[in-house]
Amino acid sequence: MITSIILKKLRDAFTDLLPIILVIAFFQIFVLKQPLPQMGEVLFGALLVVTGLTLFVQGLEMGLFPIGETMAHALARKGSLFWLLCFAFALGFSTTVAEPALIAVAQEAADIASQGGFIDSSQEAVRQYAFGLRMSVAFSVGLAILIGVMRIIRGWPIHYLIIGGYVVVMLMTIIAPQEIVGIAYDAGGVTTSTITVPLVAALGVGLASTIHGRSPLLDGFGLIAFASLLPMIFVMGYGLIIFA
Amino acid sequence: MQFLLDFTKILLATCRDVLPIIILITAFQLLVLRQPIPHLRRLVVGGVYVVIGLALFLAGLEKALFPLGRIMAAQLSDPIFIYGTDAVVSQADWKAYGWVYLFAAMIGFATTIAEPSLIAVAYKAHEVSAGTISQWGLRITVAVGVAFGISLGTYRIVSGTPLYLYILVGYLIVIVQTIFTPKSIIPLAYDSGGVTTSTVTVPLVAALGLGLAATVPGRNPALDGFGLIAFASLFPIIAVMGYAQFMHWLVIRKTKIMEKSHAL
Question: Whole-model pTM?
Answer without folding.
Answer: 0.83
